[in-house]
Amino acid sequence: MEPRRSAARRPAARRPAAPPDPDDPRPQRLRALTDLLTPTAVRLAVSLGVPDVLATGPRTADAIAACCGTDPRATLGLLRRLVTCDVLEEVRPRVFALGELGEPLLDDHLRAFLDLDGAAGHLDRAWAGLGHAVRTGTAAYPQVFGRGFWDHLAADPALAASFDAYMDQWAAVWVPAVAPGLAARAAHSIVDVGGGTGGLLAAVLEQDPTLFGTLVEQEASAERARERFTAAGLDERTSIVEGSFFDALPPGEPVYVLAQVVHDWPDDAAVAILRRCAEALPAGGRVLLVERVPDPDHPSRDHVVMDLRMLVVFGARERTRAEFAELARQAGLTLTSVEDAAHGLSFVELRRAG
Ligand SMILES: C[S@@+](CC[C@H](N)C(=O)[O-])C[C@H]1O[C@@H](n2cnc3c(N)ncnc32)[C@H](O)[C@@H]1O
Fold first, then answer.
1. Residues contacting 115, CB < 8 A, separation 6+
2. Which of 87, 114, 173, 227 is deepest in the core (most CB within 10 A)?
3. pLDDT tens, N- to C-terminus, the chain (354 residues)
4. What CATH number does domain 26-107 carry, 3.10.20.30, 1.10.10.10, 2.60.60.30, 1.20.58.760?
5. Is the Cβ–Cβ distance between 257 and 232 less than 8 Å?
6. What is the pLDDT of residue 13?
7. Locate the O-methyltransferase dimerisation domain: which residues (predicted)?
8. Distance between CA 153 and CA 147 in Å, rounded?
9. Is 151 helix (H, G, I), strand (E, B) or coil?
10. Ligand 1 center to residue 5 CA distance, Å?
11. Ligand 1 atom closest to Cα of 195?
């Protein structure tokens, strides 16, 4: 039998070079699809603050460079590239104004999403390590930035604040839709493990004035949650445990929630977090995960993208029902139900095994 050849040694099924067919639009589409300069240029302009400089009217390239602290000649090149994709207009030679796609870049939400120096930008820049992640099945973020994502946030308060703001922006979409279902599943109290700045916990407590909540979080996000609870008049009904969910959790509570936490971690770490929940859980208690649960054979486009993002950033993944069941088993828990929540998220309920 012929030995199996590795994919790398298999002869490539390439066609011999032929003159391009002018009637075939696909090569051009592929070039547009694979261009790296345009997205980088647009995002760099946002990071440098070019749209803000032009918010009050046209400026020369030299004036823009002076405001942005950049090299004048190089800035002229960047600005002219942005003209070719309608972000800017060159109203006179070397004088630029916001173009059709430049105006929306004054929007704070969009800017936070595109800014290469913010958390969303860092998450996207990790795509540069996709090759490493696909070859090894491990995180690329440490390769690209020299340390893991959570370590990076711990060392850079501005980046951590930007990540909290990024999560809060998404939370404004899903929390109002998910909080009522969570409140209905809560008993007299609820622990939100890795609960970020407390948006979900506050929304759940607002559903039911008899509920108490505990947030387990790292220091900086916990501080922002404290401010939120105080502003919402929830100090009496909340407590905050500053610390790691890899350490013992407050014991004996009826419901432990982990929203979009398990998907950040590779299997070993995910099992360790669930084991901390299992150890804290009283008889009859529940762990509720709020996660995306893709269909193993027909994942949605969002699931596919998020799965790759979790791989590249954390060496983790989106998990199917069977994969959550296996994690739960290893942590001494049993998966008892998976129910749709909202916005592509599901409630995954785990109880103590046996
Ligand atoms: C993807 S965010 C989810 C936040 C929130 N649950 C939500 O759904 O918006 C993951 C959270 O885990 C927190 N986190 C990361 N490592 C942690 C640790 N070792 N202990 C406690 N929290 C941690 C982060 O600070 C972050 O707020």
1. 43, 46, 47, 121
2. 87
3. 344 445 555 556 667 777 778 899 999 999 999 999 999 999 999 999 999 999 999 999 999 999 999 999 999 999 999 999 999 999 999 999 999 999 999 999 999 999 999 999 999 999 999 999 999 999 999 999 999 999 999 999 999 999 999 999 999 999 999 999 999 998 899 999 999 999 999 999 999 999 999 999 999 999 999 999 999 999 999 999 999 999 999 999 999 999 999 999 999 999 999 999 999 999 999 999 999 999 999 999 999 999 999 999 999 999 999 999 999 999 999 999 999 999 999 999 999 987
4. 1.10.10.10
5. no
6. 66
7. 36-106
8. 10
9. helix
10. 44
11. 6
Axis crossing angle, helix 72-83 with helix 37-48, rounded to the nearest 10: 120
Burial 100-121 (b: 16+ CB within 10 A, else e): eebeebeeeeebbbbbebbbbb
What is the CATH number that goes with domain 157-352? 3.40.50.150
- Rounded to whole angstroms, the Cα distance separating 33 from 110 reads 22
Model pLDDT, residue 295: 95
Residue found by looking up tokens 């995910």 in the block: 270
Cβ-proximal residues to 130 (8 Å cutoff; 6+ apart), any chain = 140, 308, 312
Give strand pairing partners of 95.
60, 92
**Where do the structural domains in the chain lie, given as residue ranges?**
26-107, 157-352
CA distance 226 to 137: 37
What is the best residue among 217, 224, 287 to mutate for testing ligand 1's pocket, by most ligand atoms within 8 Å of CB? 217
Is 303 a known active-site residue? Answer: no
Rounded Cα–Cα distance for residues 253 and 193 (Å) = 12
E runs forming strands in the chain = 59-60, 88-92, 95-98, 189-193, 212-217, 238-242, 255-259, 286-291, 333-342, 345-352
Ligand 1 first shell, C-beta below 6 A: 150, 167, 171, 194-196, 216-218, 221, 244-246, 259-261, 264
